[in-house]
User: Fold TMM8B protein from Ceuthmochares aereus.
Amino acid sequence: GLFVTDYFTRTPRKLSPFRSFASIELFHFHIPEDTVIAVWNLITFKEQGGTFGDQCPDRSITVYFRSGAPSVINPLHTHFPRDTAVPGSFALTLTWTLPNRTTGVFNVTSPLPGDWFLAAHLPKDEGKISVKVKGLAGMGLYEECQYLFQPQLIVQRLVNIAVLYPGFVTEQSMAPHNRSCLYKVFVPSYTSRVLVEVLRCRGAEGCPLWLRVRAKAPPLHNSTALDCREHAPCQLALDLPFWQHWYYVLVEKHPGVPGTISFQVTVQLTDCSRPSLARPPFLPSRASMNMPHSFGSTGGLALGDSPPPADPNGTKHLVPISTASPASEQCWPVRPTLRNELDTFSVHFYIFFGPNVSVPPDRPAVFVINLLPVLDSGGVLNLELRLNVSSLCGENVTVFGCLNHEVPLTSNDNASVTCETESMAGFLLSVNATSSLSRLRIPYPQTGSWYLSLRSLCTTEHGFEPCSNVTAEVYLRAYLSPCINDCGIYGQCKLLRTNNYLYAACECKAGWNGWGCTDNAEAFSYGFQLLSTLLLCLSNVMFVPPVAIAVRSHYLLEAAVYIFTMFFSTFYHACDQPGIVVFCIMEYDVLQFCDFLGSLMSVWVTVIAMARLQPVVLYLLGAMLLSMALQMDRHGLWNLLGPSLFALGIMAVAWTTRTIRRRHCYPPTWKRWAFYLCPGALIAAAAVLLYAFVETEENYFYIHSIWHLLIAGSVGFLLPPRAKHSRRLGPLPRRKGCGYQLCVNEQEELGLVDPAVASINSICTS
Assistant:
């Protein structure tokens, strides 16, 4: 056949250590129909400071692949919530082959068409300091190692695959240099059986051909197969095929067979709504068969039309054959559901004349739930069955429910109640008088049609048997939700987006883990949560001494800022707790802004007071600049160090000016340096170092409490003494006379705590 190669790529993205599914990077691809091979080229490289990160450590990268919906991954081996079905996926770990770059290749032969999703992440951080890395990198103090991941997809697909029409024979000659012939046939709804047959095999002894059939994609070596040399007639039957999908038929020649082999191939579809009849020998119109537009260029034939014309090459022609009537199970009417969209990933499926459903004893009740492509695969499909025990009339009745994708399973075998066949597997639910409630949750379900088949069976000594005259009543509820139980009280359901694809995931807190934040193996106890809340809140009481010192020294504006900081820091940390010990007096965002603003303003006003400058203008300037900085980046480390360094610069200029003017060090007394300035500066530096380099999410509650104590303590040491009001008018003008200069007494510039400690009146030489 003719191959066409398509190429797809995605923008590189920075990978993060795994904490929850919200921390992974998700990539969405679409594989076209008739693809015979898909090759993913997985490119990973390191960056540090805008250049290649040759010095960055090697960290393994895990990539997950899944068709139809995102992968449900569990790298931390946590527990899933009850009644949760975990679909499988394929995982691949990339190792580094070069210092700053590595490439992995993942091949899929005959992949399923449609949506494919790749999820990638770094391993979980084990106690590493990573909270302030972003701020340090922005300051140039630390160059963060970034691991970038870029997937590329190359697909090779066949074009103009021969289409088999049900009820017609296709003749084919396989040349010596050809090894196989590929066909496809569309299977509409209400088809219970697909029969593929190879006829009139000539050119070699014993018909050395393999017949392989597979749904949705070209067959593989492990697909359903039949050796025509050992079976006569060469017929391959598939019961309960997938509805509204293409089935691919591969006729493959045995190795080492010379010469040309000619044969005929035909397909017959059994309509389960008419089990005694096969599909008619004419091809119905495309509208009646609901065929996709990729059916082919020949188009469909209406009733009474002639068969499709022969291929111009003369290698294919269709001849009507007589219909067969193989044994088939009877299929039952499928009741639709009404889709009611409430919000993103919040969809309820209502049953007409429901939600109570009657399950008769002689036949199953079948319902269909349609999930829209792409839109519905990022949530959780929830199903709930509740049995009305009063409707059983005292009989020991069990209602079984089978949820299957793309085809209903309505087997009449009562010996073994199962929702599986050789080609598909479903989900089994059951309710009875002792257990009247059953739930099922499917995270990230595959889109398309989901069929629920309900059967009622009576329990006897010999197992399950059909009930005689009991109609069970079941309450059925089906809905789509963003997360499982909204992630509970210890989690937050987040709506995430990758390009144009939306999906939801839980982000857990207070040590809880798992897909629904239900794994309490590392959860914080109530006592621990209470202790952390009390430490963070009560540590702000340390601001009481600085407030008292400021009031005593007549620094009323500074005292007001300290009270503002103490109040909002206390209630912000009471509202910011991850567990259930939470108390909020305002909106969280308001409390956070006021806490951050108060903390930065406390540093600002303290340093400005140490500089002994006009406070009002600088206070207003600091409040406006800090509000702007917090609005730009509330968590940046520059928000603390930037204003602090700016204020320290102003103080340094003021002190230097006084030192030059007085011709001695300012403040002039060693006691002020030894007992106030140096201890206060050391305490403040220790607080900044703890905040920037030690504080992590694991030790936040006690390191941040120490931060509160140190900052408040440093303010008590650094706040300068307030001079008497009469001495705040500034230095008197110099008076020169008789060759001498009179120096005025400025006690506030000596840095003394109490002006009464010393009285200095000096006469300086001019």
